[in-house]
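Morning, I've got a small favour to ask if you have a moment. I owe you a coffee for this, so here goes:
>
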Amino acid sequence: MKNKLAIALVCTLVTACGGGGGDSASTPAPTPATSALAAYAGVWEAPCDGRERETATFTIDASGALAISSKTEYFALVGCTGPVLATETLSANFTVVFTGSVDASVQLTQGAAPTPIKVDSVSSSVPSYSMQITGSGVVRSTLNGQAQWCIDFGGGSRTCVRDEGVQLAATARGGLYLKGNQLFSLDTSGSTFVVGGIYTKK
């Protein structure tokens, strides 16, 4: 399964995604700046991954931070077509706050030379949250003591997702960058950044 956008942003910004904790480095005091993050507002979509397609909605809250909600839909047919059999959601939104702009040289696509860009440095936080999967194709089960959801696509094809329960709150740092209608979520790597995911605006 691919990384989910909201979780990918948090996983790229929150080092202990799925297990609590956070970035051991000190996080700069956030400076809410609506104008700095307004360009990221909207609905963003990851590429179809087999039968899965994830959509994340970025909105600006009253403080100027980005609030991120996410859902992943599981389709009956490969290529993300046919009826939606299941929808995966999270119980809490993620918050991303602008902390400044930095110049960095980043390899935006695999095999390409690093490109000098201006990165929006951000601080990310997530409260404790859990995941839920619902829909006509979902069967709740337990395997070796581990609760899970299984999505039945028919013809003997299915996928199962572990229920990891409530995840701990965490905070960390990372970066965001826009190029046309593409959003790049950036991991910190020493003194620079690496691409954690690329998403397209709907």
In short: Residues 117 and 156 are 47 Å apart (CA to CA). The chain has one domain: 5-201.
